[in-house]
Amino acid sequence: MSTSNNLPEVFDVIENKKEAFIGLANRVWETPETCYMETQSAAAHREMLEEQGFRITENVAGIPTALIGEAGEGGPVIAFLGEYDALAGLSQKADVSHFEPLVPNANGHGCGHNLLGSASLLAATALKDWLASTGTPGRVRYYGCPAEEGGAAKAFMVRAGAFEDVDIAICWHPSNFAGVQRETSLANCRIDFTFRGRASHASASPELGRSALDAVELMNVGVNYLREHMQQDCRIHYALLDAGGISPNVVQAYAKVRYVVRAPELPGLFSLIERVKKVAEGAALMTETTMESTILAGVSNLVVNTPLMDVMQDIWQSLGTPEFDEKDKAFAQSIRNTLSAEDIAASWAQERLDVEDDLALPDFILPAHNEVRQMGGSTDVGDVSWVVPTVQAYGPTLAIGTQLHTWQVVAQGKSPLAHKGMIATAKVMAATGLAALESPQLREAAWADLKKRLKGQPYRSPIPEGAEPPVAAMTIK
Q1: In whole angstroms, what is the distance from residue 213 CA to residue 320 CA?
Q2: Strands, E, within 122-215: which ranges?
Q3: By C-alpha distance, which of 304, 300, 267 is closest to 382?
Q4: Claim: this prediction has a pTM higher than 0.90
Q5: Shortest CA distance to 163 belongs to which of 60, 11, 234?
């Protein structure tokens, strides 16, 4: 890719404004909020959007913590996706290499979303300022997206039409490495199964009872057998939300279990959901209870985009990794000392690379590959990728070996090494957005690639019509 003559101006904006956005990332780190409850985090992003001169839309798709900032006029629309939700139970003191919760059992940014939203907004700001200074037609949008961790906010936003006129979408995720995400994700659906029976004295009149708890247990057994007869890459997990009470001498009349069903692609997901529902119906039939299922959230599999990935790869190669200093490397090594050999090996194995035991922070860009790989997890970015050509970066904000959803991620979330990775990734995203703005050919190629990958399959939301964002329900994680 030939480097745009406008990149220095875009990068200058990032350098000049980076301290403010590092401050934003730190403020969000300090107020970790989970799934749809991100009121302070969303407010911090709204405040920054206002300061930077974006036009702001709130309550997107009926979600109080979802917002959009837009700038520019006419031309193509380039979207930057941001997130700011945390995880429950991962409270941790910053900049230390031992487990020390700030508040026991409280929330923490164990997936680095405090950095994610800030870098995406910084990239959007840099491109906005360039549009304004040059008078170039085009619009930049920042999508403030809550509840990526299990809430599927972007899927609700897609269903509400929030991405209908977007030309290109750009996102990233904190990682052990620098590069381009070339892996697909699993489609998934989060479903609550509620069983109702009849209470009775478990000893004096057990024959009169109909146990909802028995129904849940039988459903779990049935799903265990189903696992032998489903596609290898599918996954099914569950959590018991309500066992009906603490009295074993009462036949439990109420029980509730939450299932997550995952599959490599949407059609397979819909099929597997129906099979799981049949197991639940069978459990209800066996126990003479009633069963009700409610889909809380669902996300599609991620559709990668070769033209956009190749452009982002070239930009990463041109920019290189951040200049980590000896303090960064020492802190990264102290984090690595808390990890197992299996943790470290897993990070290298995920990228199909040989382990380099003495490398605490990356000094190379992940090599490009065209092999379709599964990353194993799920993301609501997948729904965006079905309706808009989408590309994601990996940003080097973590010591190599750090596993996501752990206290070690939280401990690194305000560190200089994380900030350096965040700023470098903001530059890569901004440069990718600039390339898409300047090149109609790139936008056309990206759309052609998306249509080819979908093979004529229309987007079908995994969230049923009528289902609302589960703002209240998802407070129970």
Answers
A1: 56
A2: 138-145, 168-175, 179-180, 183-184, 187-196
A3: 300
A4: yes
A5: 60
